[in-house]
Predict the 3D structure of the following.
Amino acid sequence: MQTGHDYSFEDYAKYQDDILNGEIIMVYYENYTDLFISPDFIANHNNFKLNRPLIYGGFCFSDLGNWPQIMTNTAGASGYFGFDWSVRTNWNAWWNKKIIASLADTSESYVTTAFDWMNNDLFKNYWDNQDNKIVSIRYYGDSDLALQEEKISNLYNVCDITIQYVGYYNIQADSTFQSEDNYLKMSNTRISGNFSGTTFTGSFTSNGSDGPKEDQIELVFNSDFSMIMSVNWTKLYKSSLWGVVNEELNFSAINIPLDSNYHPYYFDVGYRILGEETCNSITMFSHEKVTEHSPDNWIHTLDHHDCDEHSMIQIRLDKE
């Protein structure tokens, strides 16, 4: 690759080993010296294996020789675009602009990969009248390479929610009233649903031997899915195993952040708020359980709730 760099004696002193190894070629003209670098020179002075970037070889003949292989296999780049002949500047700049605009576009509901771009409707070659030749852009490397992460809305169609809290309940047994406090955990697993933009809507129904169950949930995320801006959860449950139990829960909360320390186990992604701050997120909470069991009917009604170091709101996402 021709560098266009103005040669100096300091350059020779700095890169003497590279010059002697043939990784930098010096071409002498009458009034100046031109420098050309090989792909080995770039690979020896850069390690792309950690960040795995995309490299755009925006120079003539950049797809020929072993440039693609050394940039990806040796230097560690995820992907490499290059040209199979001398390229016109206007085509070079146009392809560069189109690649970045497409792979970095966040306005669509899907993520465009390098393979997607190579197979879209844009021209990937042109006829060069001067060289009497078709000049093409080519891609080498990871076909799934993208400049943004796959959107959560495309990946997941199942959620679950768990809340832990200190609940203070009024209890009515026929005409007798009393109150109690309990450390309670309410949860459901694998509520199926789908995304529309940044909103997930899900439902769960079951008619098992212990009675019908029904859950409805709505999750509204911010634009980059780093926060659940609001959650609304309704749970209905009826059981006849121990008398007849009718239970209803209505729960709403806001501002539940993505948990960067979440360790995927049954679910891929977790949002969580912990401890006493949990109550700051809860905006609405009602819970009632009616037990019809002779000789008494018991009604547990949540009077108010509190949060301590064990309290939690956790919402997880997964795919079926």
Observations:
- The chain has two domains: 38-141, 152-318.
- The chain has a mean pLDDT of 84.
- The helical segments are 9-14, 16-20, 39-45, 67-74, 89-103, 114-118, 152-155, 278-281.
